[in-house]
Amino acid sequence: MKLPRLAALALSVTACTKPEAATPGQDSKPETAPADGNGPHSAAGGPTQGVQRVTECPRTLGGSESQIDRVISKDCGPVTVVEDYRVDNGSLTLEAGATLQFKDGAALIVGGSDTAKLIVSGTPQEPVTLTSASDKAPGAWRGVELWDKAARSQITGAVIEFAGTEERALLVAAAEVALADTTIREAKGPAIRIEGAGSLASFAGNTLRKLGSKAAIVAPPTALVGIAGGNRYDGGAVIQVEPGDLGASTTWPNPGVPLRINAEVRVDATGPERAVLSLSPGTELQFGPEGRLSIGGSAEGGLQARGTGEAPITFTAGDRREAGGWSGLRVWARGDVTLEHAAFEFAGGGDESSAALVVEDGAVSLREVTFRSNRAGVAVRGQATLRAFADNRFAATPRAIDLPANLVGALGEGNAFDSDARIVVAPGAVTAKATWAAHGAPLELVGAVQVGAELTLEAGLRVLAGPEAVLEVGGDTPAALLARGTADAPIELRATAGVWRGIKLYGKTTASTLQHVLLTQTGAEPAVWVDAPVELRLDNVTCSQCKAAVVGWQCGASVSQSAVLATDGTPAIDARPQGC
Fold this sequence. Notes:
Layout: E1 14-16, E2 31-32, E3 52-54, E4 57-66, E5 68-72, E6 78-88, E7 90-95, E8 99-102, E9 107-110, E10 116-121, E11 128-132, E12 143-146, E13 154-156, E14 158-161, E15 170-172, E16 177-180, E17 183-185, E18 192-194, E19 200-204, E20 207-209, E21 215-219, E22 232-233, E23 238-241, E24 244-246, E25 250-252, E26 259-261, E27 264-267, E28 275-279, E29 284-287, E30 292-295, E31 301-306, E32 313-317, E33 328-331, E34 335-345, E35 357-360, E36 363-372, E37 376-381, E38 385-390, E39 393-395, E40 399-404, E41 416-417, E42 422-426, E43 428-430, E44 434-436, E45 443-445, E46 448-451, E47 454-457, E48 462-465, E49 470-473, E50 480-484, E51 491-495, E52 503-505, E53 512-520, E54 528-530, E55 535-544, E56 551-553, E57 558-562, E58 565-567, E59 574-575
Parallel strand pairs: 3-5, 4-6, 5-7, 6-8, 6-9, 7-10, 8-11, 9-12, 10-13, 11-14, 12-15, 13-16, 14-17, 15-18, 16-19, 17-20, 18-21, 20-22, 21-23, 23-26, 24-27, 25-28, 26-29, 27-30, 28-31, 29-32, 30-33, 31-34, 32-34, 33-35, 34-36, 35-37, 36-38, 36-39, 37-40, 39-41, 40-42, 42-45, 43-46, 44-47, ...
Antiparallel strand pairs: 1-4, 2-3
């Protein structure tokens, strides 16, 4: 939490001159900042007005310091911070080789009450060291706090050690902080916590090691943009993404360690334009059991996750490395998602409606995406749009795809499935011309499908039908069923258990064909029923283990048959109408 505005405290500073030039104990000599703008600068980037520049060496620091631009060089030797040292309406500059050593529980606090800036200018040969004055143990001192009025502070070439609380060693609540070539080690908890309006203008060449937390950095979803690769971490380290909202477009770079999400992160625009989260190639997102990424729930939101063959983007479980280890990614009605060269694994936790990717009325495009070891792969519901769905791979994910009947025809080519995978088709209507292709996994019909347009069943298609499954053609609008198998690749429709209800061609059905079709385990009515005045041609149609005839029709229907067979207990080839 941010510190409240503090009344001015007495500054505890014991001054000393540089060792080679003056007598210990001499008071520091402030200088007024030059008026030409070449002197110290404020956190806003302009010259600090009405402050004094101090270059003499303090022996100790503590309390609150205001209207001073203090510079400490390596010639000062170790300077002891005896209690919390607060910098407001001024700046603190630590030059190469400078050392601050902190008494137990002390901290450096910048910009808590007024505009201030911290400038650390170390080098690889002469780093600036911030360390403990006593115990060399994690948490011996509280660390560095850059509050919201310390914007554009810069830390380069620093070593921050033995610092922090269980929450952080370096707090960044200030905007556009630059952190480079800095080591944070032996911290009690995470190395860095970013909160509030805090952000990183740059973050490169840093080392975060020997930490008391697996999370090296803790940050809100809006603050990841500056954390790119090229930094060094402990083995198994993660960057923890706090729950919250992304209201504007942003890019999460690949930091080189996983991004850990333990609660819900939402991508919903707060302005007139869609908020789009872009993920960089090679990024790994790890999710806790309650972790979730939600797109377009309350406003326009988007996700662009375009990996490469060499650097895919991975969505995975952080704890339970098994199917159902985390919930999944959810796309709502106002969401739009593009996934390429990505992988989902160990997802689908929660209730039976969960899946690695759930699309609730939103729009999605998937190309070369792998789903492995998930309780369920892709679940598409409502008025969702499949802009592309091609060259995807489903492994160890038996319930590979759930989707409405109206979207089965939107499945593209090149998708690959394990032998036990299936595509579950929800009850509903097919309202536009479509082709149900043979994808290498059977379609599983769990209820009635009303065909209100021309539907083509492709050679080699396999359909598994539940007890309530039935294909109803031409009931309300003109429609046709064109089941065009071949001798080498027949179309198979069989029950999952018991019997199913078969195919019904109603009065608005136009000329239809069943060619090289195998029907299995239909119920008490003919496997294919034809109302008047429908025209149907059957060619090489077999009904196996059916409880009634292969085909039956009303007076006025036109049914032509060639090589129709009733096998394995099917009682008759046809049930002809009487009295026509």
